[in-house]
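Before the break, one more example. Copy the sequence into your notebook; we will annotate it together after we see the structure.
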Amino acid sequence: MNNLVLAYLGDAAYELYIREYLINSGLVNVNDLQNASLNYVSAKSQRRILESLENLNIFTESEQNIIKRGRNTASHKSKNVDIITYKKATGLECLLGYLYLNDKNKFKEIMKYIVGEL
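Here is what the structure looks like once it is written out:
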């Protein structure tokens, strides 16, 4: 599947998981939910999260390859962040899209790492 399509799906699955997590954590005000979600869903946050997960060595070689494929895919330049941050965020989204389609247990495991439940 096209890497940008995987990233597109990964972005949606990731954001839905984060929104559900934040609601379940007790936030009920939409502005508070939006502000809290920025700790997870912005490109800067996704780069920080990816680098943190890489330091934990939780990705298999195959998963690392998917991240690299997503990171190296030609895409448009973001107006809000530098190109490296944007590409790393895309790499994470690509992996999450792939896992969402092919290994929901690993998707959930990574998401638990991201929200600090593991």
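The first helix runs from residue 3 to 24. The chain has a mean pLDDT of 94. Try to locate both features in your own notes.
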